[in-house]
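step: validate -> pass
step: tokenize input -> pass
step: predict -> running
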Amino acid sequence: MAAIGLETGKAIFNILSGDSTLTTLIGGAGNIQPSAIYTKSPKEGVYYDILGVDNENTKTSAKAGLTKVTLQIESFMAKYSDAIEVAVRVQHLLDKVSEGTYNTIKIQSCVLESQTTDFDGENKFYYIESTYRLRIIN
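step: predict -> pass
step: emit ->
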């Protein structure tokens, strides 16, 4: 079965929630959530979203052996310096993560593609948005 959509989120949650430094910074693993959780009012924490899925080898009858997933991570914090600290920790955990199985999902690689910063004036949070490209072995 191809690791698509929210299945990839299981691996991301496993990697991020397993790091005591990150969970201390954001007040616990419960503050690592899919971005679908908030609509207008996020709270401090880390949110992840699957932006796209591309299965390799889809033109044959054989099962795709590799799935490329574009992942977005948003780090929301009230202080700008805290938002940076959280985003740097997330990058440390995800960028070039070791090949392995994380909560049943086999990750071959994960590479940071882009980062932006912004301020959510309505909710009074700074946030850093990071985009990663994962390669999932099916």
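step: describe -> The CA atoms of residues 118 and 129 lie 8 Å apart.
step: cleanup -> pass
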